[in-house]
Amino acid sequence: MFRILFFSIAVLLTFPSCSPLKSSPNDEKHQLELTLHEVQTNLDDLRHDINCFQTELQILDGRIKYYENTLTSLKQHDLEKQQAKIEQLSQQVQAAEKKWASFDKGQQEELQGLSSHANETIAALAQFKDRIGELEQEIFSQNRRFDELAKLKGHIENLAKGFSGDFKLYKVKPGDSLEKIARAHKTAVDRIKELNHLEQDLIVVGQELKIPQ
């Protein structure tokens, strides 16, 4: 369109000098009017094209602004969505950390309780073991005392037998009987049985009998 306009103007400017034939003033005027009309038409077309271009540019500018607004809205929505997701993940991480801290604290308290209980049990066992040792020593001492008392009792009995003036000791020999022993020592069988706490007349060789004097 611009080329057509420039061509028409060039024709208008060069027509009078380039025409090889002489024409009348009316023809030249008519020709000039035609040329001006054509130029005016081309200018109108050019204005129309310019208006169309401006309209298209406005439409394109509107579309660009719409796309820019849409893109900005999408970016903002996506940013908010990502921010919400990040906050949710952060809360989940914090909750997991608190849960783990609580679990770890509970485990530590339980372990401390078990350790304390184990220490108390070990101390109680040590005390029980010491007490058992003390009881064993006491039992050993009591046994020694019993042995000493038994020896002392035997010794006292022997002394009592040796120093007693009511009876004398006689060791049973083979062939002896209570009746024979009583006759030999001029006493009664019942007296020997009473003194020796015998319920029967049976005696054995080696047995010591108390014989009344």
Describe this structure in words.
- The protein has 213 residues and is mainly alpha-helical.
- The protein is built from 4 helices and 2 strands; from the N terminus they run ααβααβ.
- Strands 1-2 form a two-stranded antiparallel ribbon.
- The longest helix has 139 residues, at 25-163.
- Mean pLDDT is 81; it is low at 1-8 and 10-21.
Which structural traits does this protein have?
disordered N terminus; rod-shaped; mainly alpha; 213 residues
Summarize the SSE layout with pairings.
Blueprint: H1 2-18, H2 25-163, E1 167-171, H3 178-184, H4 189-195, E2 208-212
Antiparallel strand pairs: 1-2
Helix pairs in contact: 1-2
Helix content: over 70%
Q: Which oligomeric state applies?
A: single chain
Number of strands: 2
Order of strands side by side in the largest beta sheet?
A: 1-2
Shape: rod-shaped
The largest β sheet comes out as: 2 strands, antiparallel
Distance between the termini: 179 Å
- Give me the Rg, rounded: 74 Å
Which consecutive residue ranges, at least 5 long each, have pLDDT under 50?
1-8, 10-21
Q: What order do the SSEs take from the amino end to the carboxyl end, as H and E?
A: HHEHHE
Instruction: Summarize model confidence as the mean pLDDT.
Output: 81
Number of helices: 4
Strand share of the residues?
A: under 5%
Structural class: mainly alpha
